[in-house]
């Protein structure tokens, strides 16, 4: 083989490596996929907001911030922020739940009550992976939380 063929093969190999590194996700950590749902708990009408991670992860940080505030200020005050060493794998959790291995980021703080109709963003970090999810707290109407009344228009 002559020098031109070696140079051409080398160029093809370099382009293939560049393509794989920059245009595929083979070497990137997969994000944590987060979903949420709400469930009634007990007869008192209390509703829990539950998060699922789509797999077990050793979580090191959970942070919930109001989305509008976070979009204007990346250092927005979180309504719930826990962190830890990530020793206990977690698959799902409830908002404000005391999780093994995770403690409040600021000692003595407690999760704030979520406001209905406000959009929030949850950030989860663990296992060298990260994920975030936007959600809105809309508790269902119960005896302790009645649905708003709608105005009904009557014809002439």
Describe the protein's architecture and organization.
This protein has 156 residues and is α+β, with helices and mostly antiparallel strands. The protein contains 2 helices and 7 strands. Strand 6 and strand 7 (129-136) form a beta hairpin. The longest helix is centred in the N-terminal third of the chain and has 21 residues, at 3-23. The model is unreliable at 145-156 (pLDDT under 50).
Summarize this structure briefly.
The protein has helices at 3-23, 67-72; strands at 35-41, 46-66, 80-84, 89-94, 102-104, 119-126, 129-136. The chain has 156 residues and is α+β, with helices and mostly antiparallel strands.
Secondary structure category: alpha+beta
CA-CA gap between termini: 94 Å
Low-confidence stretches: 145-156
How confident overall, as mean pLDDT?
83
The total beta strand count reads 7
Order of helices and strands: HEEHEEEEE
The Rg value, from CA coordinates, equals 24 Å
How many DSSP helices?
Answer: 2
* Main pleated sheet: 7 strands, antiparallel
Which shape, going by the Cα principal axes? elongated
Strand content: 35-45%
Helical content, roughly?
10-25%
Give the key terms.
disordered C terminus; 156 residues; 2 helices; alpha+beta; single chain; 37% strand
